[in-house]
Amino acid sequence: MRTREAAGNDPIRRRIVRLVEEVRALPYRWPAPPDGQSAARDGCGTCASKHALLASRLREAGIESAHLVLVGPLVPPALRAVEELRDAAGLLEVHECLTVFTPWAGPLVVDVTWDPPLVARGLPGVVPWDGVSDMPYAIAAEGRAWAIPADRLRPAKEAIRARLYGSGQRAVRDRALAALSALFASWRADAPAA
After folding, report:
1. For residues 75 and 186, what is the distance between their CA atoms, to the nearest angstrom?
2. Which residues have C-beta within 8 Å of that of residue 153, sequence separation ≥ 6?
3. pLDDT single digits (tens) 133-171
4. Rounded distance, CA 163 to CA 145, Å?
5. Could you give all domains of the chain from N- to C-terminal order, each with its CATH number?
6. Which residues does 115 contact at the CB level (< 8 Å), separation at least 6?
7. Do residues 68 and 24 make contact, with C-beta atoms less than 8 angstroms apart?
8. Comparing C-alpha atoms, which of 13, 36, 4, 169 is closest to residue 112?
9. Residue 9 CA to its chain's centroid (Å)
10. Residues 182, 183, 185, 187: what is their CA dihedral angle, to the nearest 10 degrees?
11. What is the pTM of this model?
């Protein structure tokens, strides 16, 4: 069995870690189209667009991945008292990340949703990623998760959302995501220069 040290010296692993960190560095911004091309073009994205871009870049590097969709709280627990987020504090979100099939550690959860300034402010994440451990999910998963083929991802996520949201709740969710995105932009503006 390979050790973590041996995996750390693997040039393929180092390349994959670099790709993961490059995509994670793109600021989280909502709304945005869910495709990887938009994240590359705009230099920012959502969980959907950032993971679509990462899946594409991994595929180009010869590394397979699969989309993982899970459900958890829309508003991070530490932010539930923020005035603009209070009405959405009880809502769930359908979140997207990846399972990356590595030759050195097997399948690993990779979640690049939160960019480093957001992780520095306490959102889930480990920066830098070691390339041999599962990353934490950007949301607190409630135990429901689905592996969905890429070509059926958008309709599947919408079907799950249709089950989650009652009358008017989708609009509350959208307002909360816009408020989170604005809050995160202010955090980045306040972050010390790297």
Report:
1. 17
2. 48, 67, 69, 96
3. 999 999 999 989 999 999 999 999 999 999 999 999 999
4. 14
5. 4-187 (3.10.620)
6. 24, 25, 26, 27, 28, 188
7. no
8. 36
9. 26
10. 170
11. 0.93
